[in-house]
Amino acid sequence: MLRQPATELRVLEQRHTSGAYLKRDLEIVRGEGAIVWDADGNRYIDCVGGQGAANLGHAHPAVVSAIQQQAATLIACPESFHNPVRARYQAALCAAAGMERVFLCNSGAEAVEAAIKFAVLATGRTRIVSTMRGFHGRTLGALSATWERSYREPFAALLPDVVHVPYNNIERLAGVLDDTIAAVIVEPVQGEGGVHPAAEGYLRAVHDRCRQHGALLIVDEIQTGFGRTGTLFACQQEGVIPDLMCLAKSIGGGIPMGAVLMAEGIGPVPPLTHGSTFGGNPLACAAGLAVLDVLQSSDLIERARSRGEAVRARLRERLPERAYREVRGRGLLIGIELRQKVAPVLRALQERGVLALPAGASVLRLLPPLVIEDEDLWAVVSAIEEVLNHAA
Ligand SMILES: *Cc1c(COP(=O)(O)O)cnc(C)c1O
Q1: Cβ(107) to ligand 1 under 6 A?
Q2: Which of 22, 122, 161, 187 has the most crowded Cβ, counting Cβ within 10 A?
């Protein structure tokens, strides 16, 4: 089953697409919870989860209803006016994160761009420290903080002053930190770079070092936020409240949205130093409110923690040792470092009705919606076991 012939619409999309994406041989038409269906009615367990944008799953009734109601009330309302939905959302988000102010935007890269600008404004400095294997987005500023050379090099002459240091290495960070650094940007778990969690105490040590030099700590929670790692935000596991926190992906239940949160004492930024037409859009804010409400009134976050641990334990128990090097992650952000290329494994899983992601050339990444049913989680483990047994 499951290798679809190209439909007319797929040929059409292939003809007009920018070419920026490597597309899979699959046309997704519908989703519910952790399941998506293709154009022929085949069912897939979705461990791509909208690339991390679908923590609540597809068509979550609370998100659907919030969007429907807000769409019929007011969609377009720029931040040059006040809006009650936005007001409630900003307050709820700041309270949930223990932060003071928020700038709303439309994507992860935009959140990183804004955080870099805010750090420059707050410190009067321009240099940024980022980490090797770190991923922060693909617009020019965010790209400068991203490690992967093939993403950066074609645009190198256009990018600002960023130094990369090894992740989880506080000595190397200390070696480059001085009073010219505006901010250090870091992920609590490096997602795109291969699912590498921060070592215990690392984020706190980075924060302490930043303070010593008057640099700001920017935590990029774009992938780790909204319950993914077993707490609402991953840095809460370390008791760290950063100076700036970047959010996107699952923030709007799948609606395009991003945010930069500012700790007490960081903002406000001077008027007109930044802005966005769609930022604080009421439709996105209504979706965001529904997402926060569901996460705070259900057991989904605790489920992410317990099921993540259980899945990692079962993978370690069941996968043939010759097929993998390491199983890593936090909560339902799961990485399996293979002893082979991940691409053929992803294709074989797709043929068995499981969609998963790569994180680099040899890491298999799972980002299932937190609402995934237990039986579907175990079916994913069995499918991976089967594929790796065949391959090895
Ligand atoms: C996905 C991601 C980004 C970029 O977000 P976009 O919405 O694709 O611009 C930045 N940082 C991290 C950690 C991400 O996972």
Answers
A1: yes
A2: 187
